[in-house]
Amino acid sequence: MKHNEKLVGELEVQKNSPTQRRNTIANRNGRRDGHVKRHEQSVLASDMKREMALSCEKELSYEAALVEKDQREADLQRKVEESKQREAYLENEVANMWVLVAKLKKSQGVEKD
Question: At residue 113, does pLDDT exceed 60?
Answer without folding.
Answer: no
